[in-house]
Amino acid sequence: MEPNQCTKLLEGGIYTTLNVVKTGDFLYDLKKYYESEKFKDDFKTQKFSFGFEAIDPTSMVKNVLNLGASDDEIHNFQEKIKSLDTIMVSQSFFDSFSLHTPNKDIIEGYVKCLEVQNNKKGLLTVVQEGDEGITIYIFYNKISSTDPSPIVEDYKITNGIEISKSFNKGGILDDDNSITFKRNDPSKDIFFFLDTDKGPVNCLLNGLPSGFNKDFPVGTILCSYLSWEEFQEVTKNNLANPDKNWNSKYSKWAPCDGRKVDTTCGLARATQNLTNVPDLRGIFLRGNNAFDSNELGYGIPTVSENQKDPEGNRLRGSIQGDEIKEHDHQIVQQSFGGVTSTPRAVSANTSGADGDLDGSQVVSGYDKSTVPLVIAAAGGKETRPKNMAVNYYIRIN
């Protein structure tokens, strides 16, 4: 296998500039990322091991946000970026930023290719899907220099329309093997099977969202009356899994119970540092004080004081414990030995009522010193509004 075979996988570039919707303009996307709440969260959780910069192209003044910056410094940096029409970055920063945000699909495919080339023997496939279609690269690493190349005995694509391929039935798999095809029905899974005289290889590509699933992007949380079993039936979840037990690689949805997800699933890739779905068992959801860091730029007023979370814009996924708002209790008047008075458990009781509440109107021993009034406990195990039990599910692919 020629070394440059693996390099072909990198022809389109190996770096994802931002983990946000991309326009193809790196500096524009970087500016929007800087302005977002996600950037603030990523920076505070130390997702990056380097500082950030933005150069004002009109004055060439460099704005820098160093590691360990305070909330105020992060806020000031973001406000400065918002005030600029465009930004620039130095080549050294671009290289550093790019090296820290590789496209996982491309890198994983490249690594697999190298494993075949340098270590593993036999057949292996690498899949890449793009706007032009799906391409499956087939590699064969010979066991020895005299090992003959495999001969293609059969191949099959279900739910796919073949565009081109570099092999034929009865022919050999040379050092540059691939097949490209388009989806026939985007909602259906595609299965590619290749049989050779040295054994088979196959690939499964999940169908794209359709119907009920179509308009729910990764990360969407649904509140549902359906049980998990009923919900999976409705959404046709996990159907492609040969082992019918739930697996994040084959599923579009997961219950919000904190379970682990595979690093290749869409939710993990969208957030980069996520390993588990949120655990929403037994809790309510509360909106953050700001969803868009540039809301003022769109003329959206900040959230009102009587609505906002007093703890500020919290980190996504953080749990807020239950609490009762600070308040006062009034001690009501009561009748003690025929005298109506507000009880006072303090020394020098002159109300005519007995502090020990025995009805004697005689001040006894402990009434002569300060004695706290204790209000009887009432209520249940937590503070809560009226509610109904439901289930939460999250889109992961």
Report on the structure:
The structure is a single chain. Helix content is 19%, strand content 20%. The protein has 8 helices and 14 strands. The chain has helices spanning 4-7, 26-35, 37-44, 71-83, 91-100, 104-118, 228-235, 266-271, and strands at 52-55, 62-65, 122-130, 133-141, 152-158, 160-165, 177-183, 190-196, 199-205, 221-224, 253-255, 334-336, 339-341, 391-395. A 4-stranded antiparallel sheet has the order 3-4-7-6, with helices on one face. Strands 5-8-9 form a 3-stranded antiparallel sheet, with no helix packed on it. It has a 3-stranded antiparallel sheet with strand order 10-14-11, with helices on one face. The longest helix is centred in the first third of the chain and has 15 residues, at 104-118. The protein is flat and about 110 Å long. The model is unreliable at 14-23, 345-359 and 365-371 (pLDDT under 50).
